[in-house]
Write a structure and sequence with these properties.
1 helix; 24 strands; 66% strand; globular; 13-stranded antiparallel beta sheet
Amino acid sequence: MIQLRNMNKRKARFEGWYFKHQNAHHTVAFIPGYHVDESGNASAFIQVITENASHQFQFAEKEFSIDRTHLVIKIGENIFTPKGITVHLENENLSIHGSLRYQNRIPLKYDIMGPFSYLPMQCKHRIISMCHTLYGILKINGEAVSFENGIGYIESDRGTSFPKSYIWTQCSIPKEQPSSIVAAVADIPLGPIHFNGCICCIYHRGKQYRLSTYSGAKVVRCTENELVLVQGRYFFKVSLLKENPLPLKAPQKGAMARMIHESAACKVQYRFYERGKKVFDYTSKQAAFEFVPGCMPVYDKKQAIKAALS
């Protein structure tokens, strides 16, 4: 295990992980991580977001350690791994204790960043598990909440700062054959230029679909409540129907000094077509959604008409 206090602190940076869990009625996501600001000050954190509240827990740098080979993250008494988690968190507003195990994890076939993973970037994204089955109980504010046969999702980010503007959404679909969706469009600084880059991965009925800037995807529409992507024979549309944004801290030049808002369980419709034929049309009340304004909304009427008629 490498401890944060023994890491190089000469460069501002952050690294965080997103562990989402849901059953039929509850959603809870844990965001463990660490950051180093421009002055070399380092600390660790765990953010917790549910369907109706968000919470912040701060830790000294000596309380953070990580085994990168097996991805074991330890912060205080809390442990996060691709095989499960153990949490013991308590403050004046939240008490949450327990362990969850993961099985049947679905990794991506290759890095979500594609060739961009080899370039120096402000923020690099990684998907660790598109979906997996949950087992176990969390005691939340004294109530035992079973996540038995629930569904989970894991991703991570690392770099110096979050993009100045972006849209991000994730949805786990707990059916007989679990499905999962994640999509994002962000302002990407690359040297002297900026562009809107997109990534999207859909796992549905055992098949993985990929839409991305590096594979030719076009952002047809991107607003605070709608996202439309077109790539060859694929058409993908996200519509935010009802949100419940809650505050989370985000990195800016290594410091957790920026405030964003995420709806961890909100109503979103997802539509996906291949060659004009519907693959699925699914509306979830437990989708996650973030929109950080800043870049110009995108709307390409020609591409939209072409996609609708394809």
